[in-house]
Amino acid sequence: MNVRRRLIPTAAVTAVTALALGTLSACSSDSAAAGSTDEFDVVASFYPMAFLAERIGGDHVNVTSLTQPGQEPHDLEISAKQTAQLEVADAALHLKGLQPTVDEAIGQSGVKTKIDAATLTTLETHGAEDGHGHEDGHAEEDHAHEGHSHETEGGKDPHVWLDPVKYAEVAEGVGQAFEKADPDHAADYRKNTETLVGELNELDATLEAGLKDRKTDVFITTHASFGYFAERYGLSEEAINGLDPESEPSAARVKELARTAKADGVTTVFYETLVSDDTAKTVAKDAGLKTDVLDPLEGITDASRGDDYFEVMQSNLKALQTALGSA
After folding, report:
1. Cβ 82 vs Cβ 66: under 8 Å
2. pLDDT score, position 241
3. Range 186-196 average pLDDT
């Protein structure tokens, strides 16, 4: 496996301390409930975590997702049934800060192995200090009026899975956690992790090559979720509403985005599959721009442009290539 230099070596991954798996595809959400099988039972918080658990665990794991396909993960409220599933699970995988109710449920549960993906890579703040002041400045202001948080402690951006390099770091940590918790199958977990990290490495190379020779670095989204992705590939994300994809932007913000679009050659306003496209269409109409999907991969549904993480990321690449003039 040819691991590129930007990947953190396995030894650098921190010890396992937390939990949360992600929303599975529709087929995997039908799996047996956690704790009811002879397999290594894992409860995942939402899709990006569940995808890791399934790929790394292979035939040895039974993965149950707390967030169902099509459900907006930030709005999840844990049910009594899900709380009971946590109690009998062998492991729980989550990304602390993304779903506060999940964090609380896992913290209070008696689950044996708790894996927090946020501890397995380095989280960053995507705000004014790194050139993306618009999205996070508005994000924190807008989100003060919301009932839930979309950031980890200290205002850190949790969307690490959209950067394949950081996602690979998390995968290595999850693999180590599985090896420790289920040593009988450690060799298979290690092999599966190496395969997945290799695929993520290839995706990173594909994205880097595919986004070269572009006409603009700027892309507009409804939701400030592509900060790590933008940083990895030298792009600049302008988010309409920061961390709340469904709130109405101010008239001043709409005018500001129209000016930015004209100055930077922006052609497209991106929206996502799990929320309404009304805001994107409003901004696009006022600025004379097109709309398209850029999927933050918080869940897979029938409307997704692909059946798994890799297929949807390839679809995102095609959409960005068209919008940025690199296609």
Report:
1. yes
2. 75
3. 98
